[in-house]
Amino acid sequence: MAGQTFDPALVHERMEKMYRPQRRIYDLTRKGYLLGRDRLLDSIAAPPGTRILEIGCGTGRNLVRLGRRLPGVLLCGVEPARSMLETAEAALARAGFAGRTRLAYATAESLDAERQLGARAFEHVVLSYCLSIVPEPLAALDRALDLLAPGGTLHLVDFGPMEGLPGWARAAMCAWLDRFGVRHRPEVAVELHRRAAHGEGRLEAESIAGGYAEVFRFARPGAAAARDHAVAWTGVRTPC
Ligand SMILES: C[S@@+](CC[C@H](N)C(=O)[O-])C[C@H]1O[C@@H](n2cnc3c(N)ncnc32)[C@H](O)[C@@H]1O
Fold this sequence. Notes:
This protein has helices spanning 8-19, 26-30, 37-42, 61-69, 82-94, 113-117, 137-146, 167-178, 186-197, and strands at residues 51-55, 74-79, 101-105, 122-128, 148-159, 202-208, 213-219. By secondary structure, the protein is an alpha/beta fold. The protein has a seven-stranded mixed sheet, sandwiched between helices.
C-alpha cells in the first residue's frame, strides 16, 4: 500500500472485518501477548484537565485504565473499526467516564481532531500496538506527533524485533502476526531517533522481554499547555 493514495474507507472496512467478530473476546485474548501496555500506561502522570488521546483505542481498555488512575483527565480515543468504537464507548460509560470522554470514528491519518474531538492538541498521545497494523506507519506516527501539545509526550508500545527470542519462537510469532497483517516496524524507531537527533524532542527507548516489545517515550520541548479547555468538555460525542 506504500506509495498509494491513502484511502481511510479501506482501513475502516478492513479493521471492521477483522475486529467485529473478536470485539467481545478481544481484551481477554490479548492480555497475554500485548506486553508492556500496563507498564506504559501506569507511567503516565497527569493532573486533572490533562488531555490524553489514544490513537487506535480499540475496546477502550487502555482509556478505562488511565481514567481509573488519573481523576479528571480528558479521555479521547480514535478508532476506525466501528464495532470496537462502540465497545469502547460502552466500556467508558460503564466505568463512569462518559462525562470526560470524546471518541472519534476515524483513522490516525484522516482525523480532524478539532472537529471530531474538540481539541487541536493533547498533552499525552498513546499508540499501543497500533503502528504494527497500519499500512503506512510513518504517516500515522507523523500525525500522532503533530497532535502533541508543546511539552507533550508520545507514549508508544508495540511489537519489537524479538532479537532475544530463540529463532523458532521468533519465526512462529512473526508467522502468526503476519496472518493479521501485523509486523514489527523498524522504521518507527529510526524516525524517532532521527527526530531526537534533530532536537525535535527527547527520546527514551526500552526493550521488553528480549525485544518482544519496544517502548518509546518522545517528549516535545516546550512548556505544558494551559488547561482551560477542561470546562468546555461535557461528554461523549456520538462517534459516527
Ligand atoms: C492491536 S489493536 C490495539 C488496540 C488498543 N490500542 C490496545 O492496546 O488494546 C490495533 C487497533 O488499531 C486500530 N487501527 C488500525 N489502523 C488504524 C489507523 N490507520 N488509525 C488508527 N487506528 C487504527 C485498529 O482498528 C485496532 O483497534
